[in-house]
Amino acid sequence: MRRLIPMVAAIAVPIALQNLLSTTGSMVDTIMLARLGEKTVGAVGLCAQFSSLMFSGYWGFLGGGMLFFSQFWGAGDEDGIRHSYGITFTFIITVGLLFGILALTQPSFVMHIYTDSEEICAIGEQYLGVVGFAYPLMTLSMTISALLRCIERVRIPLYASIASVFANCLFNYLLIFGHLGFPRLGVVGAAWGTVIGSAVNVLVLYIFILINRVPYIMEIREHFRLDLPLLKEYLVKSFPILANELLIGVGNMLINIVLGHQADEAIAAVAVFRTLEGLIIGFFAGFSNAASVLVGKEVGAGNHEDAFERAWRIVYFSSTVVVTVCLVLVAVHTPLFTLMGLSGKSLSIATGMISIFTVVSWFRLGNWTMNDTYRSAGDSAFGSIMEITFMFLMVQPVIHLANSFLHWPFLVVFALVYCDEPVRYVIMQVHMYSRKWIKPVSDEGRATIDEFRKKYGIRVRQRGKG
Questions:
Q1: Closest CA to 132 of 101, 166, 90
Q2: Is residue 418 in some structural domain?
């Protein structure tokens, strides 16, 4: 563990800082928007749920890409990295463009999915009608950052994120309130701040890539050379992740519809909680990404024993760290929520939500780390099947029964959103120690996998290679 912690920190800390910066920018947005009222905070929070649906739409391709990036990096297969980046880039940019067009042309349709409050819908439509320009830029920066992380160039996305958050906060300040001669645009100003911040993120990424002569990303001709066997394997590996993220995105949308059809105080509390949840998950994602890179690299290189040792150690270490962070946030939640515009009943609801999240955080984020680890090692199906199955056979029936038929209190319904996490955690732990999730895609990894499986009596049904 003493040797592993510095390796985890080298990858996790810059990624965690990058994610924290992004979430801090969202918190600053919320604090500024709080001066415009709780309904504005709630409307922008619901728009963020549409952004989350876009995230679900492209994460399947990004997760598949990271699987190949990290394993090819461990194997030293540069052509594999270039070609898999080109495939990933094509799919993800397509998703960003589709969501951007929908936000720009159908904002009313989008808002009415999430709430029946006409006042909140009207505010959200103004925001979506501008922020849609940012969606393709967001997906582009995510694709570049994913590759940089997998080849262990994690500082460049951090620098880009610093510039992006600074630009976002500055232009929010100028455009929301009309300072220094800029027009006072209110919620539309916040949307333009997001667009400008996203553009700065992409610009800074490319500047540092060119200055540092980072390979792979600028080699555009290599990206689009058709490699049918790789494309087929990429789609096979990506499909479970894509199905997982799309269906879980739909499941979360249904959950957010339930949470969005509550009193205005509850909607505002949900919006602020989601921002704080993003802070926690953003910090945690650094450790999850570190697990993906460090485990996937060893699997790609054929060092499967090391991959397993890294996996279980990182799972427990990252869960411990994140629970500690949650407890710290619980300790300071009152002034933080007050600063973000909550008071009275909305403050009480948000306090209950962050307390519930802290209780389940070990299971929820442990499941997340294990799923990302399995994916980077080549097993993209197991965790996805578990998450989809429990979402639709357990979580959805329970929360809709509790909310629509039994009319239980809001916080009880919210707690039931996480009712599947402890059960899945046990199943995911059993799978981790079975070692069946190690399924290399590189030639170097495949050369040693049979010996590893024989040692542990692992029988894997073969479907083509790997």
A1: 101
A2: yes
pLDDT at residue 466 above 50?
Answer: no
Number of domains into which the chain is organized: 1
Give the closest residue to 399 by CA, choosing from 255, 273, 260, 249. Answer: 255
Element (H, E) at 417: none
**pTM of the model as a whole:** 0.76
Segments in 219-263 forming alpha helices (H): 220-223, 228-260
Helix (DSSP H) and strand (DSSP E) numbers for the chain: 19, 0
Does residue 298 have a pLDDT over 90?
A: yes
- Provide the phi-psi class of 457: left if phi over 0, else alpha when psi is between -120 and 50, else beta: left
Which domain, by its residues, includes 324?
A: 4-455
Q: What is the dihedral of CA 389, 390, 392, 397, to 10 degrees?
A: 150
CA distance 215 to 213: 6
What tens digit of pLDDT does each residue of 311-337 get?
Answer: 999 899 888 888 898 898 888 888 888
Task: Say if 465 falls within a structural domain.
Answer: no
Q: Which of 154, 122, 158 is nearest to 42 (CA)?
A: 122
Return the exposure string of 411-432: e unless at least 16 CB atoms fall within 10 Å of the residue's CB, then b: bebbbbbbebbeebbebbeebb
User: In Å, how far from its chain's centre is CA 328?
Assistant: 22
